[in-house]
Amino acid sequence: MTLKTRIREVAVVRRDNRSDRILFGTMLALSGFGLLMIYSATRSSGTFSMERQMVFVAAGLILYFVVSNIDYREYRSLIPVASAITLLVLLLVFLFEPVNGAQRWIDLGFFKLQPAEFAKVVVIVALAGLLSPQHREELGPGFVTWTKVAQAMAIVAIPAIFIYRQPDLGTTLVFGFILFAMLFVAGASWRQMVALAVTAAAGVAAVLRFGLLSAYQMNRIRVLFDPTIDPSGIGYNLRQSKAAIGSGQLFGKGLFQPGTLTDFQYVPEQENDFIFTAVGEQLGFIGGILVLAAFAVIIWRLLVIAANSRDRFGALIASGIAAMVMFHVFVNIGMTVGIMPVTGLPLPFLSQGGSFYLAMALALGIANSIWLMRTPVPGENQLG
Amino acid sequence: MKFSVRLSIIGLVFIVMFSVVGLRLWFVQIAEGPAIAQAAENQTWLHKVSYAPRGDIYDRNGVLLATSRMVPAVFVDRTFVDPDEREELIQRLSAILGIDAEQLDAMYEEAGINGRFKVAAVPTDLAYQINEQLEELPGVEIAKAPQRVYLSGPTLAHVVGYLGSVGEEDLEKRPDLDPNLRIGKLGVEGYYDELLQGASGVLEYRVYRGEIIDQKPPVEPEQGSSLMLSVDLQLQELVERALEQGIELSNSIKDERRAEGDEEVFNVTESAAAVVLDAQTFEVLAMASVPDFDPQLFDPGISDEQWDELQRIKALSNLAITAAPPASTFKAITYTVFQEEDLPLPEGIEGVDVENRLVNCDGQLELPDLADGSAQVKKDWYYKRFDFGWKDVDGALEVSCNIFFWNVGLGTWRAFKETPRENILQDWAKRLGYGVPTGVDLVGEADGQVPTRELFEELAEEQRATGKVLLHPSRLEQPSPWLGGDLMDFAIGQGFFTATPLQVAVSYAAVVNGGMVKEPRVARGVVAPTGELVEEFTAPVVRLVSISEETRRGLLDGLNAVVNINAGTPDRGTAWRAFENFGPGIDNVGGKTGTSQLSKTEDPHAWFVGVAPLDNPRYIVVVFIKNGGSGGAVAAPVARHILQYLMGNEPTPIVAGEVAD
Questions:
Q1: Is the CB of B29 less than 8 angstroms away from the CB of A280?
Q2: d(C-alpha A367, C-alpha A347), whole Å
């Protein structure tokens, strides 16, 4: 079947199915809200940060529409090529000057590309390809073999090691979480899940035991238990973050109020990883819970899409995306309130950052495509 | 398991994750929210502290000893330093001030985010120069800061003290202390630190985008209270010079002995202390410790080499409040107890007349039945040099006859051993101020140690438990480690007995004033800027010990005999030669020599305690020369020199007295 005929088929299907408007609406609301928050955190230095992010939001929305209209099933054949390109690009970052001690970016002049963000989406698709059958008959209790588990681990481990070397502990952890979630959904046995957990635990133990974490990474974990560590570095960051959120109390201090910690720019990296502190301080517990609720809606829609997918491939992609968004939300907000280590994971749609926003838009676009394509052609046997 | 079930399980896990974050958010914003909000509000206010000048310190005649001067100093306020500018700022300041960049960086780091710190005091012309460059030096300001000025230099250094930075142990004791302050570390500066410190002023303000947007009314700094000491600076200078000459004298005697082939000279004499105490008011009129130091070294700051040197020569320890065996000076106390308590002399000892309370001071004492029953001979300091013959207690004090006082110890041991009265000598000593700090208003006073059976049993216990050698191992085999010989040693101020020169002064003051023990004081009180004493620190009476007038008079006569009797005959006071040229009023002064016998490889400490005037005792003069040799030869001439001054005589040169004790 040529691409042309496939596109025609999509057009036929689209007559019956509509885009997931709740998913899109929530994403749009969060993105707009994010721009407002970025402005509130940076307005003392002008509107530059917000304007820049607006460009990415616009680009992201276009990307979302384009991807929505591509049949996600096409990606299965692209997996080897996409994986190879991704690995290559991940290696390219090591050719560029480090920023703040990390080599995560490819400087394109107008924009610093962070390939690890896109790698997450590629890995999700690759895992879905591995763990879903081409034909319905292959499905059965023994479909996820030990070999497949090993292959899945390899798919995650290779980019994860590159990214870990950048270093970027957070993104490495996201990969682990996605792997767990997708293997479970794909039908891995309890024994396989336990084996995976043991391997992960051994990996963590090895990292700690052999000092593979740098001093600052260790501090970021230790500071959770002892806030006095590194008082002018990460300890300060966490203290200010908690102070900003806590002082918001129930209703918050109000948007753009003078005299807030946000206004005084007391929270380092507020427009980036600590954007939730601007929400917590200005809009309080109510605002924070509404943001959490918006993310819950997105996760809910992603799981509904997974449940309604016409095939196992789509179902797994949607579950993987749900796991990725969930992990980001949990670790990012958890970090700002002092229950998770500071690992550099941004908050989807709210944090400033181009690559991350585009990667998220891409992921949700693919999910919307799965939703659009959910109705099977009569007689189709790919449903898993 | 069906696919939909697996999806639902994942959904449940996600719900749990949302709940965890939501609950934590509730905890931080609702449960802890109000407290966090208060703290957040406070931290947007920055504090700029201006330090108060410390109070002045005067001597008893109003001579200024220490004051504070406001001098320009360079401060850095990190609020106004962009993190990118930090490196350059530190390099520039380092170049201007000549301070190591690494050290500056450490100070910067320590100040913390939005912190403000004092870099250094600077001369006025440099302050003007920096003032002109302020635009290139973000966060830098020139402000006046107090600097301590010690006008008397090293004189009285141990009493005045010095300033230092707040350490961790200071913060433990005074948690509210501003860690940027300079606080008193020794002497009066240390003891009265809170009084002298004053109250820092503060300016609270808020900064927004590098501009001050809001500020509270400033609180002005308040100078600390000024103190007047009881010390007389003129007397103090005389005492310090006398001590230095005493050390020289001691070393010249040692040199002579070495030249004569004497191999029993072990140390070079390096240190000494003296106290002049008012026997009625317990005011300290002079207190010196040699070697001394210049307290100005510590302000603005002492170099590592200077500090190491001070540590090496132990210049910072005040020997006047450091403990050593008081030796024969203690015989005055044993004398008092012997008379007041009618202590018995032992029966059946050759050379002891129990009935007439006489002892034959012929140079050696034979003891028939010590712990193991074997006979033992104890030799006195004048063995084969003099034979003083039969002495009563007055005569024994005069010639410092150990045999007499050993027998007092032995008699007490035999009569009261293992009865409630067995500690009668030690109890008297403690009531007169030994074994506990006198309570003087200085920091770092030693306790001293009064040995008793209880103490020895504790030491033996510890030795058995830890194996640390605290007592001679043979003692542990006895039924009790406390032996008769220990009480005999105690009676002559030796053995495990230690006391500070100040404790010795206090005990003498008490016995010569009729039994009143007070806490000695070096500070008289707080003075107003007009020089008027507005608050007096009266020395509290610790206790009244009952001492009969007869005993007191007898003791004073005995003390006079030590310095003033029978020149040229063998039957003479141990300090007669030192006081030979005292001048008029020799009948009105007294004293007691002491020579602490130490280990076999250490020269003895030389002691002398002087009392004057005897008709109405006012001055107690204690001289202690560490490892200085004989009290009569070395310490007594120093004390005589000081007593001459106190009694209005022209002080004559410090030359060797006669070797005694």
A1: yes
A2: 19
> CA-CA distances (angstroms) from residue B1 to A188, A238, B8, B9, B42?
10, 42, 11, 11, 57
- State the Cα–Cα distance between residues B4 and A373, nearest whole angstrom: 19
Rounded (10°) angle between helices B424-431 and B331-341: 120
Residues 333-352 of A with CB under 8 A from B: 333-334, 337-339
Report the residue of B3, B44, B78, B81 to disrupt the A interface, i.e. the one with the largest count of A CBs within 10 Å: B3
Measuring CA to CA, which residue among B489, B538, B492, B500 is closest to residue B518?
A: B538
Q: What pLDDT score does A382 carry? A: 47
Q: Does A322 touch chain B (CB under 8 A)?
A: yes
Mutate to test the interface with A, among B8, B29, B213 (most CBs of A within 10 A): B29
| Contact present, A10 and A375 (Cβ < 8 Å) | no
What gap in Å lies between CA B551 and CA B566, rounded to an integer?
23
A257 contacts in chain B (CB < 8 Å): none
List of chain B residues whose C-beta atoms are within 8 Å of the C-beta of residue A187: 1, 3, 6
Rounded to 5 degrees, φ, ψ at B338 are: -55, -45
Q: Test B33 with A44 for CB contact under 8 angstroms.
A: no
Inform me whether the C-beta atom of residue A139 falls under 8 Å from chain B C-beta atoms. Answer: no
pLDDT, tens only, A348-368: 999 998 899 999 999 999 999
Residue B402 CB-density burial (10 A; 0-12 exposed, 13-18 middle, 19+ buried): buried
Q: First vs last Cα of chain B: how many Å apart? A: 103
Tokens of B491: 């009676």
Note the pLDDT tens digit of each residue in B126-171: 888 888 888 888 889 888 888 899 999 999 999 999 998 888 888 8
Helix H or strand E segment including B415: helix B402-416
Residue of B nearest to A44 (CA): B209
Among chain A residues, the shortest Cα distance to B4 is held by A307
Identify whether the C-beta of residue B161 lies closer than 8 Å to the C-beta of residue B229: no
The angle that helices A169-186 and B3-26 make with each other, rounded to 10 degrees, is 140
pLDDT digits (tens, 9 = 90+) for B561-572: 899 866 556 667
CA distance to partner chain A, nearest, from residue B99 (Å)? 24
Measured between beta carbons, the chain B residues lying within 8 angstroms of A306 are: 7
Chain B residues whose CB is inside 8 A of the A334 CB are: 20-21, 24
Whether residue A187 and residue B18 make contact (CB cut-off 8 A), yes or no, is no
**Which tokens in the block code for residue A211?**
């000092």
- Terminal CA-CA length for chain A: 21
DSSP codes of every residue in A82-124: HHHHHHHHHHHGGGSPPBTTB---EE-SS-EE-HHHHHHHHHH
ipTM over 0.95: no
Looking at this protein, which amino acid is placed at residue B231?
V
Distances (CA, A) of B2 to A148, B80, B97, B233: 19, 63, 77, 98
pLDDT digits (tens, 9 = 90+) for B353-387: 988 999 999 888 888 765 555 668 888 888 888 88
Q: Are the Cβ atoms of A303 and B7 closer than 8 angstroms?
A: yes
**Cβ A284 vs Cβ A245: under 8 Å:** no
Q: Express each pLDDT in A80-114 by its tens digit.
A: 999 999 999 988 888 887 777 777 788 877 788 88
Q: Which residue of A has its CA nearest to B206?
A: A259
| Inter-chain touch B21–A329, beta carbons under 8 Å | yes
- Burial class (CB within 10 angstroms; exposed 0-12, middle 13-18, buried 19+) of B244: middle
Pairing of strands B57-58, B226-229: parallel
CA distance B610 to B594: 11
